Amino acid sequence: MLKKKLYIAVLLLIPFFFSFNLQAAAASGDVTLTPLSLDSRRVVSQKLEIPADSNVHQLKLSVTNFSGNKKSLLLTGVDPVTDSEGKLVYQDKTLPVKTAPFKFAAVVQKQSITIVAGQTLEIATPIKIPTQFSGHLLGGIRLTEDNQEAALLPVTVLGSKEKINHANVSVDQLVAKNITGMPAVGVRFVNDVGVLEENLTFDLKLTQESFFGLIKKTWQARQAQVLLAPFSTFEKGISLQGMAISAGSYHLTGTIKSSQQQIKLDQHFTITKANAKKVNDAAKVAYRDNHLLLLLIIALLGLLLIGVIFLAIRQAKKRKTSDG
User: What percentage of the chain has pLDDT greater than the value 70?
Assistant: First the structure.
């Protein structure tokens, strides 16, 4: 009887262990990328930090294939950017920042790796840091398979600890663009210093004045908890709520707030006719310029007013003549 109960208990536990193993395998991922040593010194931290000392550093990495298939992988360096949700992501091509000491993606040599199922490989890659600088520079080492990310190792290049003359986050440009297939305005912000800006809040107001300031269009946008990587850019899209975008002058106002500072924005930009037409055509939104119609209406009203004044003067002269 006891053996029968044990047998039933084992049968009941089999599904539990099977489901547990499935969850563990799903959580682990197919490929891992782990730092082993930097310049023959073992890396024990979860973060890989490299000094900005103008030297070539020898990095050893461990690659493990947990899947049941052979994989052909490509190892590359990547740069961090801030996405539309305000989170850091890593990609091959980033918008240039004038004051950045260098791009991290360029200091990592590309390598092709073939790894069979269940295998672990040790690979070496030199990391050439071209210059010294103040602050930090973020980057990453990535494994891709068929242009899809398989693993990512974030990296921080540690510059000197000198006090940074902190420059404010600034607006670099404002352009017409398509967002989710509709006309919008993209405002690009730049972090020119080696400091990770955390928990930024953007409160933006965009105004376009036309027809001698008589016509105003206003749009507002807000974005909270934005991370802006050192020496990086962030583009915030402002929706025009389905309207076509028009060429002309735009006035951007608002604030950028963080725990340490508040930056006031008050800048003027111009969107060209060619840029506006390109965006509207791509979105298949027709733009109608009603300014000529308004000018015609004003001209007609002006002529009508002149006619009324002329008639009033003429009537006044007739009365004067008749009274005389």
Answer: 84
- Tell me, yes or no, whether 174 and 154 share the same domain: no
Q: Which residue has the tokens 């006090």?
A: 163
Helices (runs of H) and strands (runs of E) counted in the chain: 3, 17
Give the model's pLDDT for residue 293. Answer: 52
CATH no. for residue 216?
2.60.40.10
Question: What residues have CB less than 8 Å from 280, skipping those under 6 apart?
Answer: 183, 244, 245, 286, 287
Residues 208 and 116 occupy one common structural domain: no
In the chain the beta strands, taken as DSSP E runs, fall at 31-38, 41-42, 48-51, 56-65, 71-82, 88-91, 111-115, 120-128, 136-145, 148-158, 170-179, 182-191, 197-210, 215-228, 232-239, 248-257, 262-271
Which of these three, 94, 127, 158, is where a domain ends?
158
| Residue 122 domain flag | yes
Q: How many CB atoms lie within 10 A of CB 163?
A: 7
Distance, in Å, from the CA atom of 124 to the CA atom of 106, rounded to the nearest integer, reads 17
9 phi and psi angles, rounded to 5 deg: -65, -40
Q: What pLDDT, on a 0 to 100 scale, did the predictor assign at position 265?
A: 95
Domain that holds residue 231: 170-283
Distances (CA, A) of 224 to 221, 230, 260: 10, 18, 15
Token readout for 214 is 């008589």
Which pTM does this prediction carry?
Answer: 0.73
